[in-house]
Specification:
Layout lengths: L1 H19 L11 H6 L10 E4 L2 H9 L4 H4 L16 E7 L19 E3 L3 E2 L5 E4 L3 E4 L5 H12 L7 E8 L4 E6 L5 E4 L7 H7 L10 E7 L2 E6 H6 L12 E6 L3 E6 L5 E4 L7 H7 L8 E13 H6 L11 E8 L5 H8 L7 E6 L1 H48 L6
Parallel strand pairs: 1-16, 8-12, 13-17
Antiparallel strand pairs: 2-3, 2-4, 2-7, 5-6, 8-9, 10-11, 10-12, 13-14, 15-16, 15-17
Helix pairs in contact: 1-11
Length: about 400
């Protein structure tokens, strides 16, 4: 009866484990059901659950860190306009001697012109021209300043003409700084140069291209892109413009993989772009004995704007970053095409959930262990009992033989 009570207790524990599910078993993370069901604890961090589809991949592709998406102006370089501090020269021509600037005795001088001393555009944005007074220069091109000077002198000089030239360009400059070999500030080129040209003028990046990021600041707006995107996606190599600031910096990127993957740990990108499929490959793929291919999850924080474009109701979330868990099904062959186009970001987390059969196997193993714990003493006791009975029977038989009367006369 004691053995029966112990065995009944074992069955009761097994039933409790079966009812409790995987909560009683060791595991590397949440089950697929738990991730899809959402938070069971009202105090836990809320998150949005998004299944990866072609539309989701398209939205994320349009919001990847790129300059082309932030600066959509594809026009060529702007004309160089004068600014405060620029040094300019002014040359004035008259059609004949005896005018405002050319005396009669100088009538045989070639050109009939006078060049004024170089001057800087003052803090009010003006330059001074004799008999024309102050002329607005800030924000104007050389041609526009020439016209303003001619208009101011046309009633006093003999068919005046003016040539205005930029001697020292100080206001319309481009700054390149950060992890480049020769940080510099240099004048913007009127012929136009692109971001890569400007970085080249600063000596190029110090570190490998796959670890280098470029941030462009223009007119109070900032955007960044991997350095490799400037080369392999030419649309990102936009024109540099006057007053741009280009900041080059090193950012070694990593992602984390855990769960039922071939390997677990932190892995470097070692490339300017890594897809989800490549990331899964770096982590050794999926563990054939553990993984559920339909339950590959990626944890990431998205901006509120991107989350709304993904169709997420952002009202329950506070702050500018929305926690999102993406789910991709690589049991479906098409899932690998989606994973190839899904670009990883720095500090992404890839988690692969165990298959449901793994939890069932754990339950059976635990039940077998518990049963064996009780069954082994029972078997041992049974064996002892049997041995005793056999021994007792053998002894009785021997006694009977010895004490029995002899057969025969």
């Amino acid at each position: 009866m004691a053995y029966l009570r112990v065995f009944t207790g074992v069955l009761a524990v097994g039933a409790m484990l079966a009812a409790g599910g995987c909560a009683f078993f060791p595991t590397s993370g949440p089950s697929s059901h738990d991730v899809r069901a959402g938070q069971s604890d009202a105090e836990s961090l809320p998150y949005a659950f998004v299944r990866v589809t072609p539309q989701v991949v398209d939205v994320l592709g349009h919001h990847a860190p790129r300059l082309a998406g932030a600066f959509t102006d594809r026009r060529g370089p702007n004309q160089i306009r004068f600014g405060i501090g620029d040094v300019v020269s002014v040359t004035i021509f008259e059609s004949a001697a005896g005018g405002l600037f050319i005396p009669l005795e100088a009538g045989t001088r070639p050109g009939n012109f006078i060049t004024l001393p170089n001057q800087s555009v003052d803090n009010d944005g003006n330059i001074s021209v004799p008999y024309a007074g102050t002329v607005r220069a800030q924000g104007r091109t050389a041609v526009e300043v020439q016209r303003a000077i001619v208009d101011a002198l046309k009633d006093r000089a003999l068919e005046p003409q003016a040539v205005v030239a930029l001697v020292d360009q100080r206001a319309s400059s481009i700054s390149v700084l950060g992890d480049v070999n020769a940080p510099a500030r240099f004048p913007a080129s009127s012929s136009g140069e692109r971001i890569l040209d400007a970085i080249t003028r600063a000596g190029g990046p110090k570190f490998p291209a796959y670890e280098t990021f470029v941030m462009l600041e223009r007119g109070g707006k900032r955007a960044e892109t991997p350095f490799g995107a400037l080369i392999y996606e030419p649309a990102n190599n936009v024109y540099a413009r006057a007053l741009d600031t280009i900041y080059v910096y090193r950012e070694p990127r990593t992602f984390v993989a855990f769960g039922a993957s071939g390997q677990q740990g932190q892995f470097p990108f070692d490339a300017w772009r890594v897809s989800l499929a490549e990331g899964m490959g770096k982590a050794g793929g999926l563990n054939d004995t553990l993984a559920d291919p339909a339950s590959v999850f990626l944890y990431r924080g998205e901006t509120r704007n991107v989350a709304e474009r993904l169709g997420i109701d952002t009202r329950p979330f506070a702050g500018p970053i929305i926690p999102v868990i993406y789910n991709i099904n690589v049991r479906d062959p098409a899932g690998y095409f989606l994973a190839t186009n899904f670009e990883l970001r720095n500090k992404d987390v890839i988690y692969t959930s165990n298959a449901a059969t793994v939890e069932s196997s754990k339950f059976l193993n635990y039940l077998r262990l518990l049963t064996a714990t009780v069954d082994d003493p029972i078997r041992a006791a049974t064996d002892v009992y049997t041995l005793r009975n056999v021994s007792k029977g053998a002894a009785t038989a021997v006694t009977t033989v010895v004490t029995s009367p002899p057969i025969g006369p």
